[in-house]
Design a protein that fits this description.
The protein has about 90 residues and is mainly α. The chain has five helices and no strands. The longest helix is centred in the C-terminal third of the chain and has 17 residues. It is globular, with a radius of gyration of 14 Å. The termini are far apart.
């Protein structure tokens, strides 16, 4: 993953999302076969904990750049999040 001078993930040309942002959305987009497969992929591909992944994902759901990049995934996850909030 590329980083800029400040040490932050470098944004890819065009959409303003970082490689990490895109990777988080890619993991969220996929269906996972068995228990632990998603958590294992998060650790191996992103090098972060599942808790940190969900924090980043939740922030991306409110980011218009993420919506423009992957509207199907972002809208699906927004609906799920809203349903969970309503049921609390």
């Amino acid at each position: 993953m590329e980083r800029d001078e400040s040490g932050a993930d470098a944004a890819a040309p065009g959409d303003g999302l970082t490689e990490q942002d895109r990777a988080v959305l890619d993991i969220a987009r996929r269906a996972w076969a068995g228990p632990g497969a998603k958590e294992r992929a998060i650790r191996e591909r992103l090098g972060i904990s599942p808790t940190r992944y969900y924090q980043l994902l939740n922030a991306l759901l409110d980011d218009p750049r993420a919506l423009a990049h992957d509207p199907v995934t972002v809208n699906r996850l927004r609906r799920t999040r809203d349903t969970h909030r309503t049921n609390r």
